[in-house]
Amino acid sequence: MEKSLFEQMGGKYERQGDYLLPCLTVPAEEELHIGIWGQRHRRYLRQHRRITYYNLLTACKLNRYLADIDKQAEEMFSRLVRQMAEREGVTEELKAQDQMTWVRRINNIRNRAMETVNEELIYR
After folding, report:
1. Of 3, 62, 51, 53, which is closest to residue 27 (Cα–Cα)?
2. Is residue 68 part of a domain?
3. Which of 9, 37, 78, 80 is most buried by a 10 A CB count?
C-alpha cells in the first residue's frame, strides 16, 4: 500500500479501534505572564475579532502577542496617570494635607487613563 502524503512528510497514524487517526501535536507555546490588560484584549479578540484570535492561536503567537499588549498597556497607563497627576497638581503634599480629596482626584485620573488605554489599545 502506498504511503499517504501525511506519512511521506513524517506523520504517523495511531489505531483507535477500526480507525487510523493521525498523531497530531501542537507545538508548545512558551508560558508568559498575561496581566489584566492582556486578558481583556484576549476576551475582546475571542468575541469580536475571531479570525485574528484563531490565526494567532493556531500560529502559536497568541501568548507572545497578549504579553506584548499587556506590557504596552501597563506602560501607557502608568505614564498617563503620572502625567495627569502632575498636570492637575495631585501630589504627595495634597495626600498629606487632605487624603479624601487626593483619593477622589487620583481615582478620577486612574479612571480616565483606563478609558484611554481601553479605547486606544485594548478594544481595537
Report:
1. 62
2. yes
3. 37
pTM metric for this prediction? 0.77
Cβ neighbors of 15 (< 8 A, separation 6 or more) are 21
Is 10 within a domain?
Answer: no
Q: How far apart are CA 115 and CA 9, in angstroms?
A: 50
Q: What is the Cα–Cα distance from 10 to 30, expressed in whole angstroms?
A: 24
Q: Supply 34's cell numbers.
A: 498575561
Number of domains composing the chain: 1
Q: Is residue 109 part of a domain?
A: yes
Q: Give me the mean pLDDT over the 69-97 stretch.
A: 97
Residue numbers of the domain that contains 112: 33-122
Whether residue 27 has pLDDT greater than 80: no
Question: Is the residue at 66 inside a domain?
Answer: yes
Contacts for 114 with CB less than 8 Å, ≥ 6 apart: 77
